[in-house]
Design brief:
The structure is a homodimer.
Chain A lengths: L2 H8 L3 H10 L6 E4 L2 E3 L2 H16 L4 H12 L5 H11 L14 H17 L9 H15 L6 H23 L4 H34 L12
Antiparallel strand pairs in A: 1-2
Helix pairs in contact in A: 3-9, 4-5, 4-9, 5-9, 6-7, 8-9
The first copy, chain A, binds a DNA duplex through helix 2.
Chain lengths: ~220, ~220
DNA sequence: GTCGATTGGAGAGTGGCACTATCCAATAAT
DNA sequence: ATTATTGGATAGTGCCACTCTCCAATCGAC
């Protein structure tokens, strides 16, 4: 398959594919001659993954390169490959991670620390992108007057555990470590919109249930 | 409070506040003279909300203006104010909403339709941002070979319901409709990073549990 | 073989968008 | 009176994903 076909099958313009090749997001095709290269199904797949990371995950190109490097790094054992990839994934809400150090931030940090201790979570501690962004989000909520105390955080954490089990179940069905690492990245990113969209739909339902529409006044004069 | 103080207390540069005023994201302050205006606590609060929508929710300025217009629209009843605000919120993953119409997309649309029917969800049907983005996300998963079938979607949907109940419980504690609409928007946006970060932390834990690190070989020669 | 079309590669350019720097006249502070 | 500050308007900046343009090598049709 040459670039034109890769472009046609993926729906990505050739100019963009060239750009990804240049940026190292896509491995070069097999060189057939000085000006020809052949791409395989693995390029098509990688291209889909790149698009998912960048367009769905809103990941900067440089970050996507790091994540993919971890996915491809055969020298690491499975545990670390999964870990490096997960660590490199950008936080869901940049701009929260480096929040100010006010009262709200300190309270939030304490609350998150307590939660982690209670749950016994210690893989990703303070300093990890996810942890710091979580602190920032809880602080932002506090500043607007919406408390996110231990009880509420715990409720969210239980839900998160359920989601994590769902993803890991799917991961375990795969055979090779390479497949699992790629799946880990893809599912982390692509399940996010699934979850968030369903949450919004569920909110609309629950909202309509609790705050029903008033009886319709058809064609009323205002 | 004048602009300098508003800036100091919010941490937002005055140039940016001026920009928000110009764009209609922030109502003008009370005019004291031709060149002076006073801002109140409500401006500080609105400014925090604007920052949350734009920086945390990654919402375009124009969209934030629409959402805030719905929040402020006193002419609508509560049901519709909540609905308009929710509809205007941008989808969590733009670029998925307008996916191609291939086999994966059709299958995804069918799966989502079935799910909605089974759950009896009908507030936001096809055409709504959340619904269309969900279809796009399921299709993207299918193209990468990760099925998101009815069973898995249902599992996610149950989780989403739980989350929605959590948010609505908090909403019902508020007194005025105005507060509730604002809270609805703020919680929809700000709980997203909380949930997503906790999910990533949970994934790391679960992953470490299922794929433990191999016994450390300290200072090994490679 | 020859010649137009296509390919891959490299660099500069474009567009969108959130912000920001610069001015300016009017007013507040001293 | 004089200097600093404020609010307002306008134009500019920086970032970043992408896209355009050009070029030489090569492929394919005749």
């Amino acid at each position: 398959m040459r670039m034109a076909e890769l472009s046609a099958r993926s729906g990505v313009p050739t100019a963009t594919i060239k750009f990804y090749l240049r940026e190292g997001l896509l491995p070069p095709g097999e060189r057939l001659s000085a000006t020809q290269a052949a791409y395989g199904e693995e390029h098509l797949r990688r291209l889909s993954l790149v698009r998912a990371l960048i367009q769905v995950g809103r990941m900067p190109v440089a970050t996507a390169r790091e994540v993919l490097a971890a996915v491809d790094d055969e020298t690491l054992d499975q545990h670390n490959r999964l870990g490096v990839a997960a660590w490199a994934l950008p936080s869901p809400a940049p701009g929260l991670a480096a929040g100010e150090d006010d009262e709200a931030a300190r309270t939030a940090r304490r609350a998150v620390g307590t939660l982690m201790a209670e749950l016994g979570w210690e893989e990703f501690g303070p300093g990890s992108p996810a942890y710091e962004t979580l602190v920032g989000a809880v602080a932002a909520l506090a500043r607007l007057g919406y408390p996110c105390d231990a009880a509420r955080l715990t409720r969210f954490a239980r839900v998160a555990e359920e989601l994590a089990r769902t993803d890991l179940d799917l991961l375990e069905e795969l055979e090779s470590t390479a497949e699992q690492v790629e799946a880990s990245v893809a599912l982390t990113v692509l399940h996010e919109p699934v979850l968030l969209c369903l949450r919004r739909l569920a909110q609309a339902e629950e909202s309509a249930r609790r705050f029903p529409a008033p009886p319709e006044r058809r064609a009323g004069p205002g």
